[in-house]
Design a protein that fits this description.
5 strands; 111 residues; alpha+beta; OB fold (Dihydrolipoamide Acetyltransferase, E2P); 5-stranded mixed β-barrel; 1 helix
Length: 111
């Protein structure tokens, strides 16, 4: 009787574990990255007056796309500064800022 209950419990645990793993809709990529832009693109640094802290800094690409940068050096945090950037989009991250795609700045230089 005890052996039967123990076998049932182990079976349930295994089934729950398998269903939990298969239910995950996580897209696994290297370092939670989706897309890397490995060539420099033109962009403008924007300081949003309606936001505070790190949320205030946004990068706008020439096509109007807005990016929420991670790793933008302080020397480039100048409102209206024209820059060229290489970046990598980060997936799976949540942000309180909600100003655009979250990206890791790989390289940046002035225009």
């Amino acid at each position: 009787m005890k052996k039967s209950i123990l076998t049932s419990i182990i079976t349930i645990i295994i089934l729950v574990s398998i269903s939990s793993i298969s239910a995950c809709k996580c897209k696994k990529t290297k370092n939670n990255t989706a897309e890397a832009n490995t060539s420099f693109v033109d962009a403008t640094v924007i300081k949003r007056a309606d936001l505070i802290g790190s949320c205030a800094w946004v990068i706008e690409l020439s096509d109007g796309t807005r990016l929420e940068p991670r790793g933008l050096q302080s020397e480039f945090k100048i409102d209206g500064k024209k820059i060229k950037i290489e970046y990598e989009e980060l997936e799976g991250l949540k942000s309180k800022c909600m100003t655009g795609k979250i990206v890791k700045i790989l390289n940046v230089k002035p225009q």
